[in-house]
Structures are given as C-alpha cells and as structure tokens.
C-alpha cells in the first residue's frame, strides 16, 4: 500500500508572528520555518504504518516554493521514502492543493493519503475535505487513532464531547489531530541519507492542474494591543469604574 | 554503546568562525569530510551581534561575495561618536579625535545571523554537512588524552532524567580534528581550556554583556548607513558603551554593551539599556517606532593578552570561543572568520603531512597573519580603559592608535577576575531604575517574548548549580543574588516561600548568553547544552 503524506512549510510555532508595516501579509523575512506540526504528525503516522509492514512506500508531497525542499528532506530524514515538490512561488489555495493531491493520488495509485487537519499559518482546514470530494473517496478527519485492516482504515475522530470511530474503505483520506502520535526526532545518519533520497520537482502544468484564483488577501492586521491595567483603591472605586468607564454594570 | 559517525573534521557551532573553517577546508581539499553541529533550530537562530562588519576576511574567503549575494546591503555612510553626559545632554566627539580603530569607512552594517545563513548555504554548496538542532554536549577523548570528537546530547529525556517515548540517544562524532567554535564562553571550550591548561600564559579573560534590539522606525527618520556609538550615561557603575545602526528596510539596531567587571551588585545591565533608549540621541530615532526583536549575548573581550593557546592534541579553539574579538574596533566577526580560516589551513597541512604538529603549524600561520598583527597592536586598548578610566584611557588609546599605530612599547595587563569584583550590598549604592514606559522601554518578560526563545518543557534544567545552597546563602546575604539582575532574560528569581527564600530557575527563558556562567561570584552556575533546537530563534539579528 502506497501512502501519500502532505508536508507544508510554515512559520515555526516558536516564532512570534509579526505583520508587515503595510499590512499586506505576515513578515517572513529570515524567520525560522518548519514543517507544519500537523503535517509532522501525518509523516510520523505514515512511517509507523511502514514500520508495521502495512505501508510499502511513503511519499511526502509539498506544494510551495523551492525552499519547501528543506521540509521534504526533513520528512525523508524521519523515514519517508521519496518526495515530490509541486513548485509554485504563489500562495496555493486549498482547492489547488486538493486538486494536486487528487492527481498525484491517481498517478501514484496511493491507497491512503494522510494530511494535517490544517496548517498553523492559514488555519483553513479544507484540503482533506476537498480532496475527498474531488476523488469521491471517504474521509476520516481529526484522527486521534488510525488502524488499517484488510481493505479498510478505522479512524478514531476527535469530536465535541467524545470520540467517534469510522471505518473507511480504501483508498481513503485521513487528516490528523494533535493527539494522534508524538513525532520522533530525526537521527543524524538519517539526515545524511535523506539528502540522497529522490526528490522530484513538478509544476501544476506538468500535472495538468488548473490554477484559478478564488481568494484575494485584502489585509492582515495584528490583534489590538492590550490596554494596561489600573490599580483601584477600594471596592467602591472598582464598582464606579465598572459602571462609568467600562460600562459593564 | 552509542552509535558513531566518522569525519575528517567536526566543527562545533555554525557561527562566523566555524562556517569559515568549514568553507576554507573544502576550498583547500574538496575530498575532506566536514560536518558542522549547531545547537540552534537553524543556522543563525542563536547568532546575535551588532554589527558593523569589516569585510577583510570575507574578501579572502570569497572574493566574489557580491556576485554570490552575500547579505552586505548597507555600507556605512557616516560615523558619529557621542559622550552622553546625563539623561538629556550629550557631546559629539569631533571626528579627528576618534581613535582610528573606531572609524568605519568601507565597512557594512549587517545582520551576522543572516551572514551566517548565507555562509551556511555556501558551505553546503561545497559539500559540508551542517546539522542544526544538534547540540554538542560532551567532548570525547582517546586513551592518550587526544580529542577524539564530540557527542550530541540525548533527546527526549524528562526533567527528572527518565527516558520519554521520544527518547533518542546521543550520537558520537569522531574526527581527526575537532574545531570548537561555540562563541564566547563555550561550555566545551571552557572545559578544554582547563583540561589542557591553554590559558596559563594568558591574562584572565574579560567579558561584557551585549543586549540588542531591532526596531522598525519611521521611514522619515531613517538614514541607511548611519552609525552611532557612544559612552557615558546611564552607566555610572560600569564601563561600556552603546551602538545604534541604521540598517536596511527602515530598521535600526540599538544595543548596550556593559563590561562584566562591574562591582555594584545592584547593577542591572538590562535596565541600564532600557533607560538608555530615553536619551534624546537615541530617542530621536526610536520614538514612534516598533520593537521587532530582542536578544543578548556575552562577549569575550580580553583580546591579545587574554588569548589562550588555540591548539591542543586533536582539536582547535577558534573565534570568540578562544577570544579573537578586537575590542578596539568593537568587532569580532572578521577576526573570528580569519581565525577559522587559519585553523582550516593548519588542519589541511597536518592532514596532508602527519609529521607536522598542529600547534607549530597553526602558530606559524597565525603569527604571519594580519589577525595577529591586529590583535597585538590593540592589546592595550581595553586594559587602558580599565586602568585609567574612560577619559584618560581614551586619551591613551588616541595616542596609541592614531599617533603610534598600536606600537606603544609597553603592554598593559588587567589581571583581575570579572566575577570577583562584586562588593557587599552593605557598602554598595542601591540603584533605582525607572519603570518602563511600554513605548521606548519594556519589562524583561515582554522582551524575552520577542527573542522567540523556547525550550522543551520536560527536560533536565540546563543551568546547573554545583552547590544548591549558594544562591540563597552567601549570594543572597552578600550580593542580594545578583543573577536576578544580570540575567537579561529573567531566568533567575528568588521567591519567598514558607521555608524561606528559594531560587527559581526559569530555564525556558534562557537566551544562551552565558552571563550567569561568567558573572556568578561563587562560579557556582554552569551552563550546559539543553535539548537540541532549544533557545532563541532570532531573525535578522
């Protein structure tokens, strides 16, 4: 069974996001970039399936700039067998990414696609669902447990107030939640080996994926700065301030 | 038994000196197997410097650096030197009276972090293996005492020392030569200096703490290439100086360097820096701007007199790990790079001809280099300031550097120890620092937030105490535990508990500046490497 895994290059979760002074976007100049944490969980899950003898090949796929090669190399250091970068300098919309994965899923004959539930930069939470719709295959989103048995994958989903386990016929699409697993660290020799693993670069045109712009980014704004607090001398003063200044009582 | 990997040369630390060593090695012999370990999450993440770069070493490393796109975008256009008299008044020093070493014609305002990111790309292009996120935690030795290599730290160990589900054992990296380029007060370099007695012929090393911020300012006030330096206010209890450089993209970098031989235990370099920014000379540019980043790093500034022997069996010490900074120029990048290049040339020679000794080969190359000439001719600069004070020391330096070209026929020594200078709180004047205004000055925690520092929470504390009782014992009674004030990241806190005062170490905030390892009066704190990738994530610093 071939497994396709999505890997997105995003701003590192440790880095404090800063908005450009002209409000056009987030400032990413020389900031630390990393694999989207949910994608990292997807990679880990795929590697575990391979280690368990269920997956035969794990293919890491990224849609993004040429710099995304760094994250694909990391995925291969963690255990992915090869990687495909669909290169674009523009921000790819969820639908474009979903169409790309649909094409690759067919080309590769992948029976399972594991994606992060969302990326921590744009927080769309759309690609997995769109991919399921485009390919007319079942989806198991927000997975906290995945187990593959003869022709099926059982996915335990984190839902409000509990867990729901669904059984999907393969090929299927799974999106990962935070508690699915704890990704491993890459080992030094594996990082070196990953440099020699195959990384194929394609374009949307190569894949016949039509790119259409549906979304336009108008502006990005930082949250309003918090006002400093004041110390009050008495309960009466507090009540008076809540009444007259905050106007909440 | 740990796994091991073999290399010709292993380099510890991807800063200017380590990367220059790696690049020069591959330029001299493309077949050499060279790897660089870096504890930061990526190259540049832990690099913090002013900085005005003198491109001399870079010119020698890549004479086509402009074609290759090195990030030297802002040539220095104007130098201003100020003496701040008090919180309002200042005097600009006439250009003719500025020591020659402080003039910056032909130099560039750079982010050394970005320079290192670029150097790492060049190194990888030449076939160097760079491993960010792996800290060299331990030195390995052969039976005969020769350095064998280093071991990376274990990952996935809990605070209490147990193996977590993600546990990964450290790995041994063996090499014919190991180059230590950890920067100032490297925790392995410190062990090597002591084990091989590398500093017996040298004066004690002297240190300073540099605190830096990056600001986005009003484009109307921005003058790319303008360089400001100065001394005086607000430092009354310590020597040091400030810098403010107008770099590209409407940004300025501003910082304060405080010598760590200060004696007043109430001194807080962090708060000195915060109030400095209110002086009109600095405020005129910063006002209305926004702070983008914050960080701090100790500086080894002993220069020639404090320079240890840089070679030992199987290993070399380069850059600020040894102490090659030129304090007269307040620049260390070009000298660090050069020291790495010389190390590479020496290693290449002894690998080709094993009858040569690394010590003699390195020393011959070093003594023939401009690096030696530069460090030797400025050997009196800092000791003069220490001995005679800012004014007479400055006058001495003017005569020495501008009239005699660094050839004053005497050598001044400063043999005092930075950590031994603190006076008892009973005789020290308490310092009242103004509250931050949230516009120009800020508290420690909101500053640390901007450094993007992070450490995995469940791991052993990387700030180790030889004796747990000292912080709340002699350090508290004699010096009111100065770590609370000298640490620029608020790592050390004395908290009152029912059983009495107790020390809380907020290791997650640590910026890896090493000041505690240097300044603790009891030399009780040892900084060790946390889990790889831990620490700040500086952009453009």
UniProtKB/TrEMBL annotation, chain A:
Protein's recorded name: Electron transfer flavoprotein subunit beta
Q: Highest taxon of the source? A: Bacteria
Which organism's genome codes for this protein?
Marinomonas ostreistagni
Keywords, ordered alphabetically: Electron transport, Transport
Q: Which InterPro entries match?
A: ETF_a/b_N, ETF_b, ETF_beta_N, Rossmann-like_a/b/a_fold
Report domain Electron transfer flavoprotein alpha/beta-subunit N-terminal positions.
23-211
Query: What family classification does the UniProt entry report for this protein?
Result: Belongs to the ETF beta-subunit/FixA family.
């Amino acid at each position: 069974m071939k497994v396709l895994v999505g890997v997105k290059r995003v701003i590192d979760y440790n880095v404090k996001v800063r908005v450009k002074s002209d409000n056009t976007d987030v400032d990413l100049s020389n900031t630390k970039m990393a694999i989207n944490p949910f994608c990292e969980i997807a990679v880990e899950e795929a590697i575990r399936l391979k280690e368990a003898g269920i997956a035969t090949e794990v293919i890491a796929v990224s849609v993004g700039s040429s710099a995304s090669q760094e994250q694909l190399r990391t995925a291969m250091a963690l255990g992915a067998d090869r990687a495909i970068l669909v290169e674009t300098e523009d921000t790819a919309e969820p639908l474009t990414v979903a169409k790309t994965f649909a094409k690759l899923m067919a080309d590769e004959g992948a029976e399972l696609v594991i994606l992060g539930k969302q990326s921590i930069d744009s927080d769309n939470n759309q690609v997995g669902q769109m991919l399921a719709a485009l390919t007319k295959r079942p989806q198991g989103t927000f997975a906290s447990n995945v187990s593959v048995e003869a022709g099926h994958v059982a996915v335990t989903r984190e839902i409000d107030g509990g867990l729901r386990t669904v059984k999907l016929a393969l090929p299927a699409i799974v999106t990962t939640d935070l508690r699915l697993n704890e990704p491993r660290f890459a080992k030094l020799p594996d990082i070196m080996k990953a440099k020699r693993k195959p990384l194929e670069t394609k374009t949307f045109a190569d894949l016949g994926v039509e790119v259409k712009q549906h979304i336009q980014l108008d502006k990005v704004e930082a949250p309003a700065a918090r006002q400093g607090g004041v110390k009050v001398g008495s309960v009466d003063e507090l009540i008076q301030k809540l009444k007259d200044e905050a106007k909440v009582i | 038994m740990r796994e091991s990997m073999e290399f010709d040369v292993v380099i510890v630390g991807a800063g200017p000196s380590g990367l220059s060593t790696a690049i020069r090695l591959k330029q001299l012999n493309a077949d050499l197997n060279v790897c660089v370990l870096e504890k930061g999450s990526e190259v540049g993440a832990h690099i913090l410097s002013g900085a005005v770069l003198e491109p001399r070493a870079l010119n020698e490393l890549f004479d086509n650096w402009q074609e290759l796109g090195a990030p030297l975008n802002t040539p220095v256009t104007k130098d201003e030197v100020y003496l701040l008299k008090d919180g309002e008044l200042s005097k600009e020093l006439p250009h003719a009276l500025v020591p020659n070493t402080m003039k910056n014609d032909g130099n560039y305002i750079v982010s050394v972090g970005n320079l290192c990111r670029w150097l790492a790309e060049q190194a990888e292009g030449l076939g160097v293996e760079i491993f960010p996120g792996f800290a060299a935690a331990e030195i390995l030795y052969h039976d005969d005492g020769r350095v064998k290599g280093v071991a990376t730290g274990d990952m996935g160990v809990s605070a209490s020392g147990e193996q977590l589900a993600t546990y990964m054992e450290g790995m041994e990296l063996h090499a014919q030569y190991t180059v230590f380029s950890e920067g100032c007060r490297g925790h392995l370099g410190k062990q090597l200096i002591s084990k091989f007695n590398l500093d017996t012929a040298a004066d004690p090393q002297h240190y300073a703490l540099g605190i830096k911020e990056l600001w986005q300012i009003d484009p109307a006030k921005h003058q790319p290439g303008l360089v400001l330096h100065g001394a005086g206010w607000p430092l009354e209890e310590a020597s040091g100086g400030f810098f403010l450089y107008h770099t590209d993209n409407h940004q300025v970098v501003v910082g304060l360097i405080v010598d760590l031989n200060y004696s007043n235990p109430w001194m807080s370099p962090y708060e000195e820096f915060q109030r400095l920014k209110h002086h009109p000379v600095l405020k005129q540019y910063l006002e209305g701007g926004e702070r983008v980043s914050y960080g701090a790093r100790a500086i080894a500034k002993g220069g020639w007199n404090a320079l240890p022997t840089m070679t030992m069996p199987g290993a070399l010490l380069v850059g600020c790990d040894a102490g090659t900074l030129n304090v007269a120029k307040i620049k260390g990048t070009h000298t660090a790079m050069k020291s790495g290049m010389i190390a590479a040339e020496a290693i290449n020679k002894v690998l080709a001809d094993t009858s040569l000794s690394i010590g003699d080969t390195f020393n011959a190359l070093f003594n023939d280099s401009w690096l030696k000439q530069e460090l030797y001719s400025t050997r009196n600069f800092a000791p003069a300031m220490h001995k005679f004070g800012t004014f007479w020391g400055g006058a001495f330096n003017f005569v020495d550097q501008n009239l005699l070209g660094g050839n004053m026929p005497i050598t001044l020594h400063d043999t005092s120890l930075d950590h031994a200078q603190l006076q008892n709180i009973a005789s020290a004047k308490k310092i009242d620092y103004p509250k931050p205004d949230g516009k120009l000055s800020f508290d420690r925690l909101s500053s640390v937030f901007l450094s993007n520092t992070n450490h995995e929470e469940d791991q052993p504390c990387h700030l180790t105490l030889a004796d747990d009782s000292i912080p709340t014992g002699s350090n508290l009674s004699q010096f009111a535990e100065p770590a609370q004030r000298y640490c620029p990241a608020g790592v050390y806190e004395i908290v009152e508990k029912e059983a009495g005062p107790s020390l809380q170490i907020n290791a997650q905030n640590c910026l890896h500046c090493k000041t505690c390892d240097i300044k603790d009066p009891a030399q009780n704190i040892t900084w060790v490497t946390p889990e790889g990738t831990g620490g700040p994530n500086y952009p453009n610093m």
